[in-house]
Structure formats: C-alpha cells, structure tokens
Amino acid sequence: MSLAVAHRPSLRHRAADLAGVALSVACLVHCLALPLALVLAPALSTWLDLSGEVHAAILMLALPAALVAMVGGWRRHRRPMPALLAATGLTLLALGLAAHETWLPVADPEIADRFFSGAGALLLAGAHLINWRRGGHPATHD
After folding, report:
1. 51 to each of 35, 56, 64, 101, 108, how far by Cα in Å?
2. Which residues cross the membrane (predicted)?
3. What is the C-alpha to C-alpha distance for residues 22 and 81, in angstroms, rounded to an integer?
4. Helices (H) and strands (E) in the chain, counts
C-alpha cells in the first residue's frame, strides 16, 4: 500500500492546460466556424487564404502545450487517459494537416482535413479538460 501525496498543480502546468484548451477551441473555430462563414459569405473566399501554415502553426503550438500539461498531469494524478487522448488528438491534427496538404491519398482532402482536425481538436480539448479537472487528485492504487 502506498500513500500518494496530492500535489497542487504548478502555475506552469495549469497554464499549459489552459493554453491547450484555448488552442483546441481556436482549431475548432478554424475548422468548423470559418468554413461555415465562407459558405454564408462567398465573397470572403476571394481574399481569405486558409493555407497549410495555419494548420502547421496550430499543431506546433499545441504540441509543447500538450507535452507540458500532460507530463505535469501524470506527475500529479498518475492517470494515463488524458495523455492517451492528447496523443490521439495530436495525431488526428497531424492527419488533418496531411490531408490539407494532400499528402494523404483520400478522395476529398477538404472533408478529410475537417474531419481529422475537428476530431483531433475535440479530443485534445477533452484531454486538457480532464487533466485540469484531475488537478491534484492522485489515482488510488489498491
């Protein structure tokens, strides 16, 4: 029987979780709301460029935020689920970028991009929220 000491999450780890949630929401807005706006206002598409750099930038910001938050979360609560969800979400975001850049052999890269990126952003946001919610509550070991 081991006694797990509840550690308060550091400000750095909490900030990483918050940054991860914010980036995931930004990704969802980019993936879902912006295309809807383009459908509703076709004139926007003539001067608004949704390049792969946006996808790559979000992924490059999400990677370190998830790493810091998930490592800190593991140290606090020893639960693997947030990290597994985050890894899956990041993988899906990377697949969304690959679909957007047509590196994946898919029938419709635009639909694949939205599907992978949207699902990845939701999983990543969920991982950060679970990690945040677990906070300083260690897993109980029998």
Report:
1. 13, 9, 22, 9, 17
2. 21-44, 56-74, 81-99, 111-130
3. 20
4. 5, 0
